Amino acid sequence: MKIRPEALEDHQKITELVAVAYQGAEESTLVDALRPDAHLSLVAEDEGEIVGHALLSPLEAPFAAGALAPLSVAPLWQGQGIGGALVREVCRLAPCDAIFLRGDPAFYGRFGFRADLAAGYACVFAGPFFLVKPLRDIPATGRVLYPRAFSAAGSSGPR
Ligand SMILES: CC(C)(COP(=O)(O)OP(=O)(O)OC[C@H]1O[C@@H](n2cnc3c(N)ncnc32)[C@H](O)[C@@H]1OP(=O)(O)O)[C@@H](O)C(=O)NCCC(=O)NCCS
Question: Which of 3, 107, 131, 150 to mutate to test ligand 1, by most ligand atoms within 8 A of the CB atom?
Fold first, then answer.
């Protein structure tokens, strides 16, 4: 399994993968909407098959911030470390001072994402599942604005 930036010919496979991982088309629509401005769109590939995908998009914040969402691993491939490998690679490559996301602290906590640190930021997605991983020193408070696509796509939030 290797992780690499998406290529043009991966788009359709990513659409299918994200829809199957999230059991619906909403997050695939979100990927398509966010893709043109994304910082990173990474795929996990195994013997030519796209088995995972992660997207990092720029956020409006008082420092360079990114949103990790969505994160998808094909159902048959889950539980083998692919999701974790994608998160780590996004953190390694992110051109950001911090990465925000909304997700389960039980999963993302192991990669350094914290709800207590995110609690200092005003955001429509604020709450116990709103997490941040600082990559450099950042102010403890501020306003974080997600791209319009997160609401335009009818998404329940940045997952
Ligand atoms: C979440 C997801 C990306 C994880 O990918 P993965 O390749 O299965 O993850 P890994 O193999 O690296 O890690 C598996 C571990 O994460 C845990 N885990 C997986 N999904 C979890 C979740 N939603 N909440 C809490 N823990 C979770 C597993 O229990 C496992 O724990 P263990 O190592 O203690 O046994 C994948 O399950 C997925 O695509 N789910 C559907 C879409 C989704 O919900 N995306 C993320 C939303 S925040």
Answer: 107
CATH at 67: 3.40.630.30
Q: Which residue type, as a one-letter code, is found at position 35?
A: R
Domain extent at residue 130:
2-146
Note whether residue 155 is domain-resident. no
Q: Is 158 part of any domain? A: no
Q: Which distant-in-sequence residues (6+ apart) come within 8 Å of 132 by Cβ?
A: 98, 99, 100, 101, 113, 114, 117, 118, 121
72 in ligand 1 pocket by Cβ < 6 Å? yes
Can you give the pLDDT of all 159 residues of the chain as single tens digits? 999 999 999 999 999 999 999 999 999 999 999 999 999 999 999 999 999 999 999 999 999 999 999 999 999 999 999 999 999 999 999 999 999 999 999 999 999 999 999 999 999 999 999 999 999 999 999 999 999 999 865 545 555
